[in-house]
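Morning. Coffee machine broken again, so started the prediction first thing and wrote up yesterday's gels while waiting. Chain of 349 residues, entered below exactly as on the submission form.
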Amino acid sequence: MDIRIERTKNSKRKDIDFNDIPFGKYTSDHMFVMDYADGQWGHFRIVPYQGFVLDPQSKALQYCQCIFEGMKATMGVDGVPRLLRPDLNIDRFNLSAERMCMPAVPKDIFLQALKTLVTLEIDWIPKAEGSALYVRPTMFATESSLAVTPSDTYTFYIYTGPVQPYFTTPIKLVTEQKLIRAVPGGTGEAKTGGNYAGSLMASQLAKQKGFDQIIWLESPDFKKIQEAGMMNLFFVIGDSVFTPQLTGAVLKGTTRNYFIDILTEKNIKVEVRDIYIDEIQEAYQEGILKEAFGSGTAAVVSHIAEITHGNSRMVLPERSIGTMLYDEINGLRAGRIADKRQCLVPCNH
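Came back before lunch.
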């Protein structure tokens, strides 16, 4: 793949205070772009970060044919940028594409685009442990038509931006018992824009009541736990760690995968199964619910301080397993922990 590179003439980096980089506030200088037409991808380019001209009738706007991914690049001790298991993100992106009737992006093209862009933006990678260069691959439909059919043309792009950890303090959650994010057979496991738009009302209502996010429960009974806002959930009950199984309504979290692998390697019992809010309440009342935390690319680990379900309020301490997993991921990225499973992929080429 021959990527044409047009470098910016006026870098924004000099205007950024890397000690204050809230999640999603800043974007770096360049973006990778390519287009899909006549059944193939082409016109590979890296250009200065800029907007797109989008037809008002495009199927991205009319029918929400739009998907994205989230990943992080960090600096290795040898000065080489690295991505943590980008293959998982590429696979999930193409799973989202399949569900939304969009073309897959070949792995070799996807990976070369990632490596080339991250290498070009190497000066944007924060040095502080826990911070990273956030990488956002996105695809949207460009065909202008009101026909309710998949688009014939698409644009794929990747942009980046420096970030600090998403949640820095333990969070308060409340269960949602009226609104629904996703159901099995829907688009819940696809990272498509409409899923996030549909989740905003519940999140806003929760924040108005003093909570940070919500726990989604599966309809129609609103008993089975799905996920928390944009995160997968983990509960430590007794000596075991529990996380909801993937039903098609729960996002296939890449960080979730790492955590299950780490727990298994450390001989900590982990169970992936249906989990119900009633059993979480029962475990809390019995004093065996030791901790709960969310996992995701943005936050890595979000310790849960409180869970409110109806009139019941569960106050949880910040325990050791979530902290251990957070330290494992950050230590791996920082080079303090050996990459025995070769999860880190260098971006030199």
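The helical segments are 59-63, 86-99, 107-120, 193-208, 254-265, 277-285, 320-334. Going to sketch it on the whiteboard this afternoon.
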